[in-house]
Specification:
Two copies of one chain form a homodimer. Chain A is an all-alpha fold. Chain A contains ten helices and no strands. In chain A, α1 crosses α6, α4 packs antiparallel against α5 and α8 packs antiparallel against α10. The first copy, chain A, binds a DNA duplex through α1 and α3.
Chain lengths: 210, 210
Amino acid sequence: MDEATLREKSVDTVERILRAAAEVFAEAGFTGARVDEIARRAGVNKAMLYYHVGDKRDLYEEVVRSIIGKSAERIEEEIRQEDSPEEKFRIYLRRFAATLDENPVMPPIMMRELASGGQTLPRAAVEGVARVVSLLSGILDEGVRKGVFRPVNPFLVHMMVAGAFIVYKVTAPVRERAENIPEEVRRMAPELAGSIAGDVEAMVLRAIRI
Amino acid sequence: MDEATLREKSVDTVERILRAAAEVFAEAGFTGARVDEIARRAGVNKAMLYYHVGDKRDLYEEVVRSIIGKSAERIEEEIRQEDSPEEKFRIYLRRFAATLDENPVMPPIMMRELASGGQTLPRAAVEGVARVVSLLSGILDEGVRKGVFRPVNPFLVHMMVAGAFIVYKVTAPVRERAENIPEEVRRMAPELAGSIAGDVEAMVLRAIRI
DNA sequence: TCAGTTAGACCAACCGGTTAGTTTTTCCTC
DNA sequence: GAGGAAAAACTAACCGGTTGGTCTAACTGA
């Protein structure tokens, strides 16, 4: 193996470790996660975790940082300047939904993180959310200026959208298991895109449109 | 001490234990919570937890049950038969907000509970939520029949309301600490009632009203 | 030679849970 | 109401399994 291949192999190992760690942390939370379990799922010896990444806390922070960092960027990328405010809002909402659909480990980790007051929440993550909210704020402002939206608190809108999406994602297993709930609720798809994302979009738009 | 005083003293001890347990579970989650810490905060010997309540799991289930159980009842109680659908909806929303304001340990516990797929969620808790949703479902149905609401998925509505409230509650410490976010977001009150509850109410009603 | 890797033994600290024994309260009896 | 047994409440110390983390010795492929 030449140097490049070697580095690649090593990068691959680190990635496997982080992916496994993300999974286990998502399932069990920080204290509930077992380092041995992470090593097992990554298919590496436990010593490799400490060799490549560091201790349990380092592992966790790395996971949180890498997962949440991506989200904001993706949303910003797709919004084109010439779109109408309503179209921009749709893109914001759909990209956000897609991000959650694509990263199933994100909602549980975020939720637990928030539940513990976000003490270990990397600054990058907080900034990511702040950027999304300020992006949304710009969209709503533009809508107000153009006379298509009524003035509303952007933070509140994001809270409703994000809250609904995250809670929806995360209640999927409970809904499936629960017996005494209506069949139509039980059968709701676990994905946001193509199912409830559209309904949320319609409801929120009806609420903010003039 | 006569019998009444003793029973009261014992009840008091159990209450102190449960209150301390709720606190610690809210801060650290089930696996993160330390039984010794709960005992310390309750000001009792650790063995007393086992003597009065049971093991860690029993402690936890008792906490979750007592907290979530109340919520559904309270909402049901306050909705009078003669109210209009819109008024009923307002009561549902305000009572829910008030419950979260009054029980600050509830949002973090619920979030962590959901984050772990509700594996340890006592049946009573799931039933509580189901009851709230079916209550809301009845309100919305009635509204549709009377021609004041358009048909919407009640589960979705609850998800948006509950999601927004819970996430709002739980992001309070992060909002306070974050530096690069707008001042008006940072200064938003931690309470729901009297602050964002009214805005959420207005937005959702605008979305579902004919 | 050397970074990356493995198997696996090992350890100290932690933590849930128990136990043996003590104090306090209740309750019965004379 | 004195006495004393029984029950309830409580404590300090301990136990044993778990778990994060370390270490050694050996192997691999470039």
